[in-house]
Amino acid sequence: MDYLLSEEQEKLKETACQFLEKECPETVIRETREEDQGYSPQLWSKIADLKWLGLVFPEKYEGTDRSLLDLAVLYEEMGRVIFPSPHLSTVVLCGLTILSAGSEEQKAELLPRIAKGDLILALALAEPESSWDGNAWDAQGITVQAAADGDHYVINGTKLFVHDAHVADYVLCAARTKDSGQPEHGITLFLVDTKSPGVECTLLNTTAYDKPGEVVFNQVEVPKENIVGEVNKGWGPLARVLQIGAVMLCAQMVGSSQKALELAVDHAKTRIQFDMPIGINQYIQGHCIDVLWYTETSRWLTYQAAWKLSEELPCDMEVAMAKAWTSEAHEKACWHAHQVLAGVGYTSQKGVMTLYSMKGKTLQHYLGDTSFHLNKVAHEVEKWTAPEKPRGKPLGYWDIPAEEQIPAWEPWQELRKGKKTW
Amino acid sequence: MDFGFTEEQERLRKKVREFFQEELPEDYDWGGGAETAEEGQAFMRELQKKTAKQGYLTSGWPKEYDGMGLGYVEQGIVDEEFGYAGISWPSQLGLHLAAPAVFLFGTEEQKKKFIPPLARGEAVWFEAFTEPEAGSDEANQQTRAVQDGDYFILNGQKTFISGIYKPDFLYTLARTADTVPKHRGISLFLIPADLPGITYRALPSMGGGTQNDIFFDNVKVHKEYLLGELNRGFYHAMATFEFERTGTAFPGRVKRGLEEFIQFCKEEKRNGKPLIEDPEVRKLLAEMAVEAEIWKLMAWKAVWWFGNREELGPMPFDLSGMCNKQLTTAQSEKMSKILGIYGQLRQGSKWAKHEGRVERGWRSTRSLHAAGTLEIYKYVIARRGLGLPRIPAKLNAVIAQALDEKK
Ligand SMILES: Cc1cc2nc3c(=O)[nH]c(=O)nc-3n(C[C@H](O)[C@H](O)[C@H](O)COP(=O)(O)OP(=O)(O)OC[C@H]3O[C@@H](n4cnc5c(N)ncnc54)[C@H](O)[C@@H]3O)c2cc1C
User: Which of A313, B73, B354, B370 is least surrounded, with the fewest CB atoms within 10 Å of its CB?
Assistant: First the structure.
């Protein structure tokens, strides 16, 4: 047991914090969100230089072979400044899927390019129906079809909430290639060149002004060698990567809540009303403590999940718990911070509070919201077995009438004489 | 970062769990209340002694004081298992509060006198701090201890003092000097509970009575029972509050309660279907599981910092205490919600579900004030943790004066 970051992680955290605070101030966040691309290519190449794009890839693919826990540390810092980048899409959701399921040629070809910042990828998973039904991030939500036709497959259908599709070189599309009884069986992953005829991407307008896309596949032909992993068996590797992605979103929210905490506490100490800092009032203190509470509880659930992922321990429960709680907790943390900041936290031209709480809407829902993950928790909890009963001799507790259940000690016996009960 | 336990630690956990598995009666009412009946009390005192023989009662204490000399994590494991087994020791407060205070501030003689009976699982202690006028404001002690030669003469009243077993010792605060500020004139005493002039009155409470009033009427306490420095008692008490406020036993117990409740939800049917298939029930169970996990994590984090802390005193960022206060309430309310109208039936009613545990649990969680209220925990976190401003002492003095004038 050790609740501290390792020296290496501390160093990563510190460098990331310094870099991001310098390179990603409020102005940059605002500018990038105005632009169509939604991220800054200059910053993208700078973080490639910092090795953040190959952080969790093996060295032979130009990576630095760090752990998922390290990655979570980095994501917390990126969340703290709302760093706009296609990192999650490219490195985590697509990169790690290729790493775990791709052929040797695919890995050798694609991963180094990702690590160098030359390639942007996006994961096309959720669909309109499934997003409405609440199984957007589960196998049964996938209905977009891909049919074999000679040496290629033809994909038809619509994917929604595809982050970074508009700037991606490829989308990794999860499509159904077989209808069997089990939804997990029959899903295949295709790397689709976004310039292929029939691929059309429209940007969706969201609370956070980030730019998930609607991607329509109309008779899109994909060569067979662009299949990642085995035909019909794409769900296995993807499911794990979705868990990793969910935990990284949690880490991002933890960083974001941390910033909300800093903003709220700072304001509580410096804003004067009624001739006193507002932080002297216990209502305001209570709001600050709630931000702290939501931040800290989310942080440790998230780190626990990230640690288990890193160690490759079973963690369906921990991941689901982290995403279920953090999604809700981040919104609450921001709400309490808004209460402390009042007017300055609401006006949208200056000050970052609005940016954090709006971004939260995306992070909250992406890769499964609270009810989605609570369902998973319930599923796990159902497997709990009854605790083992003690084996000692029975004492007959249950046979003792309630009025006899008064301790032997005098003051309590006297109470009984007076026939008082509770 | 590492959330795991070593193999050796897991072995310890298994051994402790196995020990309680064998020792506790199969009808053990782990949800509390087992010890209210006479038979239960006798049993628990015996078990306490047996556990002491194994060393588990004092796992974290140094070996020369009959402990196992284990580390914080190991002690956390043993405590978690006490909690999981549903045990609350007759001498809980002696073990978790008085003993650490004696280790920290006691003289060699005091250690020799007070520690061995605790380590053997024999002595029962009460923590007698609260008074009618000194609840959250612990510094407002009105009980007086006036020095008279080798003795202190105590007069005053304590209230809401937990305890259902006959006590052997009281761990208490009394005013030894009239000072401004108030907290600089208070001292800590370790008092034999049967000294002439001490009387007790039981205070029934809605959760199943475990509190008492204690009256001191010219109680002569020898000065060897003063713990630490004269007039520094408030500081000593504050320094040791972290022992009372943290621990893994509580989340261990909550986990057990949840496991049993989930089993009940699998077995009990409504509309022909097991409760656990009801989507609303599933959601509440999942929420409770998440809360229990948070609680466990925060408790372990506190254990970790405890072992690595640099200064004594309530930990400014300790949210595990807040978990105890906030989440027990949430859990019992959720369970009660699942039982619906049946949630009000007491143990013993023929229609009570889950042996009436939910009802009892709900009642007991209406009071979470022991070891300080939720608000006071927040107060500590706001000031010490977040550095938020406090009402200046000067203003307090103005208010006090105004109140005096009104009288
Ligand atoms: C089940 C139970 C067991 C107990 N066991 C023990 C025991 O073993 N030993 C012992 O010594 N005591 C014990 N107590 C007493 C307990 O410590 C006190 O009840 C507690 O500290 C609160 O004091 P009070 O009841 O006088 O409330 P008050 O201090 O009168 O407080 C009333 C309300 O005002 C709030 N409040 C007070 N000051 C502030 C502030 N500065 N800011 C914000 N809010 C404030 C409190 O949070 C509370 O909500 C026990 C109490 C209970 C209920």
Answer: A313
List of chain A residues whose C-beta atoms are within 8 Å of the C-beta of residue B287: 374
Give yes or no for a contact between B13 and B56, defined as CB atoms under 8 angstroms apart: no
**Inter-residue contact B187 to B231 (CB < 8 Å):** yes
Residue contacts between A and B (CB atoms, under 8 Å)? 220
Q: Region B99-114: what's the mean pLDDT?
A: 96
Note the pLDDT of residue B287.
98
DSSP state of B318: -
Task: List chain A residues with CB under 8 Å of B204.
Answer: 415, 420-422
Which residues on adjacent β-strands are paired with residue A174? A189
CB B356 within 8 A of CB B347: yes
What's the CA gap between B298 and B304, in Å, rounded? 10
pTM of the model as a whole: 0.95
Q: Report whether residue B372 contacts ligand 1, using a CB cutoff of 6 Å.
A: yes
Amino acid found at A272: I
Buried b (16+ CB within 10 A) or exposed e, A248-285: bbbbbbbbbbbbbbebbbebbbebeeeeebbbbbeebb
Q: Which residues pair with B216 in a beta bridge?
A: B156, B198
pLDDT at B253: 93
Q: Which of B137, B160, B183, B360 to mutate to test the pocket of ligand 1 (most atoms within 8 A of CB)?
A: B160
| pLDDT tens digits for range A234-264 | 999 999 999 999 999 999 999 999 999 999 9
Given an 8 Å threshold on Cβ–Cβ distance, is A292 in contact with B319? yes
Retrieve residue B44's tokens: 């628990």
The pLDDT, as a whole number, for residue A421 is: 55
CA–CA separation, B210 and B364 (whole Å): 11
- The residues near A300 (Cβ < 8 Å, ≥ 6 apart) are B294, B297, B298, B301
* A86 three-state secondary structure: coil
Tens digit of pLDDT for each residue in A164-208? 999 999 999 999 999 988 999 999 999 999 999 999 999 999 998
Question: From the CA of B139, how far away is ligand 1's center (Å)?
Answer: 13
pLDDT value of position B141: 97
- In the reported structure, the alpha carbon of residue B135 is separated from the centroid of ligand 1 by a whole-number distance in angstroms of 5
Pocket test for ligand 1, best of B136, B140, B328 (most atoms within 8 A of CB): B136
Cβ contact, residue pair A412, B164, below 8 Å: yes
Give A397's contacts in chain B (Cβ within 8 Å): 25, 27-29, 34, 37, 39-40
DSSP string, B365-377: TT---TTS-HHHH
- Residues of chain B positioned with their CB less than 8 A from the CB of A321: 289-290, 293
In whole angstroms, what is the distance from residue A117 CA to residue A115 CA?
Answer: 5
Predicted ipTM beyond 0.90: yes
Atom from ligand 1 closest to the CA of residue B367: 53
